[in-house]
């Protein structure tokens, strides 16, 4: 699978954000250090679930923290309306703050959304 | 292995019937406004707690010493932050809840907040011989403030959405909003005055907070009991077990009660009287949920010394968060969620441990939380919230009890992990195909 897109803006939605904040920092660090991601315009931000609709338009993929999985139906309804791919973050990746895996899932999510 | 297989049925049951309840509770607009409003209020309680902590430091010095005398002489000044935070809690609650509710109903904030504050003041302030009696603006008026603020904002939204307002064409937005607010605000004012007068008349001079406390006192105190603590903690752990933030789901119901208890505890402490309640917000944060909901610090300790390399790695990654009472890394990383091996101690053990801790406070072996702190590491947080050094010993005891409680179950899980051969799954292969350099 080849990365075909130029831009990937990732929105993480969560509860009140302590652990998600750490995750965003970690993911940004990985992006900064990666040579292969250099040509792509990558942005990562986290917002509470209640503000999804305010921000969704500026992003390409939505990742949902596993601790608010129960709101997924509601959130994916919003995502569907704006035609954005959405997915719950793997619990173990989330717990271990495995930013690399989560970044890769976001890339896969975007590729799948583009029909690859 | 037979025990975990039996538990799989329970897990499926929880997934099917319990998770939707969580979604409904969080979507319920009153509960959600109360929750967000009360969480906003925590900032007021935390800054107000500083004066209590300073006062407690003063009390550590022996009677008659020069430092003690200095603290005693300046008592009123040191007490000032407390008086204007805890002592006026109802006003801040009205502001915070009205803001969150107006935001939710998508109506202008400013006049909703003004309306809720006016109504709260009318119901909670008594006029005695022409002077204002503000003693009901503290935690005694909290419940009235919450209910009145929600109703006020609902009423304002009703008027604004049905356009029963005064509007002039061509006015700038800010001024137009002021005129728009006139009719709804007047209605709120009139209704509050009438209802307040009615209550005073019917009860022979009791205002709403007084009448409320008088008739509903048993209900208020019912949360601060071992049964309620067991049940609340049990439900919280059930939610966490299926991967949902149980605290966030339940706190909307419990926080008003806890805040009221904290207000009474703080006032009692400031007046050097016995502490009346146990179940203050910091009891849940730092004792019931010591090192993270489910006493997860105990699991982190077990993981750090595990035979499995995977578990050791998770233990290392979650130890700093555990010190800051953040449980997510170990809850999702180990994982505890959906882990049948840990179901019994996590869901049944935690509330039981919590009830034992409740009795330690109840018997007066350690002073119950009188202040409210947040974001502070274990065991300093436990010390500051109670201003009692014995809280540190209690913290260590809770963690040690947690280790004992989890030990046999943790070992079963460890064995199952060691036996399982590691296989690369489809996801990992997909990741590899991306051919990235991280």
From TrEMBL, chain A:
GO biological process: phosphoenolpyruvate-dependent sugar phosphotransferase system
Domain PTS EIIB type-3: 7-116
Gene Ontology terms for molecular function: kinase activity; protein-N(PI)-phosphohistidine-sugar phosphotransferase activity
Entry keyword ATP-binding: no
SUPFAM superfamilies, A to Z: PTS system IIB component-like
Modified residues (Phosphocysteine): 14
UniProt KW Transferase keyword: yes
UniProt protein name: PTS system, cellobiose-specific IIB component
Organism, scientific name: Seinonella peptonophila
Taxonomic classification: Bacteria, Bacillati, Bacillota, Bacilli, Bacillales
From TrEMBL, chain B:
Signal peptide residues on this chain, from the entry's feature table: none
A Gene Ontology term for the protein's cellular component: plasma membrane
GO BP annotations, alphabetical order: N,N'-diacetylchitobiose import; phosphoenolpyruvate-dependent sugar phosphotransferase system
Top-level taxonomic group: Bacteria
Record's bilayer topology term: Multi-pass membrane protein
Function as written in the Swiss-Prot or TrEMBL entry: The phosphoenolpyruvate-dependent sugar phosphotransferase system (PTS), a major carbohydrate active -transport system, catalyzes the phosphorylation of incoming sugar substrates concomitant with their translocation across the cell membrane.
Name of the protein in its database record: Permease IIC component
């Amino acid at each position: 699978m080849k990365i075909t897109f130029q831009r990937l803006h990732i929105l993480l939605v969560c509860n009140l954000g302590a652990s998600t904040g750490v995750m965003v920092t970690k993911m940004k660090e990985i992006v900064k250090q990666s040579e292969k991601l250099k040509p792509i315009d990558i942005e990562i931000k986290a917002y509470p679930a209640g503000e999804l609709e305010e921000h969704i338009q500026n992003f390409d993929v939505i990742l949902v923290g596993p601790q608010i999985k129960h709101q997924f139906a509601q959130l994916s309804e919003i995502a569907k309306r704006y035609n954005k791919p959405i997915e719950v973050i793997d619990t173990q990746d989330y717990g271990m703050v495995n930013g690399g895996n989560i970044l890769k899932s976001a890339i896969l999510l975007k590729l799948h959304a583009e029909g690859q | 292995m037979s025990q975990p297989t039996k538990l799989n049925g329970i897990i499926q049951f929880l997934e099917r019937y319990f998770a939707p309840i969580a979604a409904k509770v969080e979507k319920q607009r009153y509960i959600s406004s109360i929750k967000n409003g009360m969480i906003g209020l925590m900032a007021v309680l935390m800054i107000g707690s500083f004066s209590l902590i300073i006062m407690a430091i003063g009390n550590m010095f022996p009677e008659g010493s020069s430092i003690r005398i200095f603290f005693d002489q300046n008592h009123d000044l040191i007490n000032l932050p407390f008086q204007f935070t805890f002592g006026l809690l109802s006003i801040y609650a009205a502001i915070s809840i009205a803001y969150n509710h107006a935001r939710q109903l998508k109506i202008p904030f400013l006049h909703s907040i003004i309306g809720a504050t006016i109504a709260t003041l009318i119901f909670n302030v008594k006029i005695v011989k022409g002077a204002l009696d503000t003693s009901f603006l503290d935690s005694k008026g909290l419940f009235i403030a919450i209910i009145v603020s929600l109703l006020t904002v609902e009423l304002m939204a009703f008027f604004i959405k049905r356009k029963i307002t005064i509007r002039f064409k061509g006015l700038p937005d800010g001024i137009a909003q002021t005129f728009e607010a006139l009719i709804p605000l007047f209605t709120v004012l009139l209704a509050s005055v009438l209802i307040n007068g009615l209550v005073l008349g019917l009860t022979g001079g009791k205002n709403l907070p007084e009448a409320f406390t008088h008739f509903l006192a048993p209900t208020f105190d019912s949360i601060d009991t071992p049964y309620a603590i067991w049940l609340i903690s049990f439900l919280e752990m059930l939610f966490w077990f299926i991967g949902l933030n149980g605290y966030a789901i339940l706190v909307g119901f419990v926080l008003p009660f806890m805040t009221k208890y904290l207000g009474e505890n703080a006032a009692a402490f400031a007046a050097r009287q016995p502490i009346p309640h146990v179940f203050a917000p910091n009891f849940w944060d730092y004792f019931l949920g010591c090192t993270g909901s489910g006493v997860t610090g105990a699991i982190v300790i077990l993981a750090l010394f595990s035979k499995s390399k995977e578990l050791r790695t998770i233990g290392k990654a979650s130890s700093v968060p555990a010190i800051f009472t953040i449980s997510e890394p170990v809850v999702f990383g180990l994982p505890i969620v959906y882990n049948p091996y840990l179901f019994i101690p996590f869901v049944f053990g935690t509330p039981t441990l919590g009830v034992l801790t409740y009795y330690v406070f109840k018997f007066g072996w350690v002073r119950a939380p009188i202040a409210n702190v947040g974001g502070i590491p274990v065991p300093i947080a436990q010390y500051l919230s109670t201003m009692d050094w014995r809280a540190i010993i209690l913290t260590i005891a809770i963690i040690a009890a947690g280790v004992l409680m989890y030990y046999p179950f943790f070992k079963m899980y460890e064995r199952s992990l060691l036996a399982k051969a590691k296989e690369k799954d489809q996801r990992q292969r997909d990741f590899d195909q991306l051919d990235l350099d991280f």
